[in-house]
Amino acid sequence: MAAELEIEPHVLRHWEDVGALTVRRDGNGYRIYDDNALEQARTVLKLRRVGLSLPEVTAAMSPTKSAAQAVVRAKIVALESEVVQRQQAITFLQHTVECRHRYLDDCPDCATFIREA
Fold first, then answer.
1. 115: nearest Cα among 99, 98, 96, 92
2. Is 26 helix (H, G, I), strand (E, B) or coil?
3. Residues 6+ apart with CB under 8 A from 44
4. Cα distance between residue 28 and residue 25, in whole Å
5. In this predicted structure, what is the pLDDT of residue 76?
6. 44 within 8 A of 33, measured Cβ to Cβ
7. 9: Cβ contacts below 8 Å, ≥ 6 apart
8. Distance in angstroms (rounded) separating the CA atoms of residues 92 and 99
9. pLDDT tens for residues 77-117?
10. C-beta of residue 45 within 8 angstroms of C-beta of residue 5
11. Residues 6+ apart with CB under 8 A from 41
12. The whole model's pTM is what?
């Protein structure tokens, strides 16, 4: 399963250890990665790739839909805030590239950007 998902086997074991992945065991204690485990692992992987931490992933996969939605909504708010901050950084950096002043302290626009930060 790790090869199919292009991740290391220890990652799957870690996900299981922290409760993000449920894997059945056979009579000898060996893990059985069935279709349900594969789908669950794909979901964990996708949620990790979109920025959720492992605790957030575990909470987002809660059997209670309202609890899962709350985690996802909170992540959306955090990502939207990050987008705003990054756009402000881009605007500031674009200005510094185009600024006619040699030093940021000499430019009233740069000073305004800095005070807003």
1. 92
2. coil
3. 15, 20, 21, 57, 61
4. 8
5. 95
6. no
7. 2
8. 10
9. 999 999 999 998 898 888 888 888 777 777 887 777 767 65
10. yes
11. 1, 5, 12, 15, 21, 33
12. 0.74
Answer for the pair 91, 109: CB distance below 8 angstroms, yes or no: no
**Residue 105: partners with Cβ closer than 8 Å, 6 or more residues away:** 111
- Per-residue H/E/C for 88-113: HHHHHHHHHHHCCCCCHHHCHHHHHH
* Phi and psi torsions of 24, nearest 5°: -70, 160
